[in-house]
Write a structure and sequence with these properties.
alpha/beta, five-stranded parallel sheet
């Protein structure tokens, strides 16, 4: 009987230790990710990477929030999206609220390779310190079986162009100058859908899977080349 209690005590101690380590890891991660950068890497550090930030899908949601926050921290903003009215409205709002310069580029990221010539022209001669790859879309607004969606062939291509091709091409455009300066920040907005099966959003989820793997590899490669 005593040996059974000893085993339970050991199990309880191990469980408590695991829970304690889990809590410490969670708190430590929060401090490292969200608090330390505010202390060690302030606005001056951010601006040292370049005068401009580029945000795709910048007129709503996460992209809009990034555009305003980066402007608040002292960067000029290039807003890229498909709705010119929304682009101009957000650009004026950023200039009014934060006193920074803006530039807008109107493109539809479902368009494929042909849209990137206009983007390259719009970014010419800008010192880009931050790129936020935020733009994204799905092929349905509700939970619907893949084969029940109308014109699904085109919608799949739209998802691939918008969610995958845009990240690769935008990175290709800004990366050379970042490497040349050995400074630059690229932020890729992904989705929790990339980490679990999504029966009614399978293509969307699949389009988000490459980001952590591909860009983690790119980051490691650039670090080995002394590019931060």
């Amino acid at each position: 009987m005593e040996s059974e209690w000893d085993a339970l005590r050991v199990l309880g101690a191990v469980t408590a230790l695991c829970l304690l380590l889990w809590v410490i890891w969670g708190v430590g991660s929060t401090v490292y990710i969200y608090l330390l950068p505010q202390v060690r890497r302030g606005n001056a550090w951010l601006r040292s990477h370049g005068a401009w930030a580029v945000v795709t899908g910048a007129t709503s949601g996460i992209g809009k929030a990034y555009a305003h926050e980066l402007a608040r921290r002292g960067l000029n903003i290039v807003l890229i999206s498909r709705d010119l009215n929304k682009l101009e409205r957000e650009a004026k709002e950023i200039e009014r609220l934060h006193g920074k310069s803006t530039r807008v580029i109107q493109v539809d990221f479902t368009g494929g390779l042909e849209i990137y010539e206009a983007i390259e022209a719009g970014l010419k001669d800008l010192e880009i310190g931050v790129l936020v790859n935020n733009v994204g879309r799905s092929y349905t607004r509700d939970l619907r079986k893949l084969l029940d969606c109308e014109d699904i062939g085109k919608k799949i291509l739209d998802v691939i162009n918008c969610n995958m091709l845009s990240v690769a091409q935008m990175t290709r455009i800004v990366l050379p100058q970042m490497v040349a300066r050995a400074k630059g920040i690229i932020i890729n907005i992904s989705s929790s859908a990339d980490s679990r099966p999504c029966p009614y959003l399978a293509i969307y989820a699949a389009s988000k899977v490459p980001a952590p793997t591909a860009w983690g590899g790119l980051a490691a490669m650039l670090k080995s080349c002394n590019s931060s």
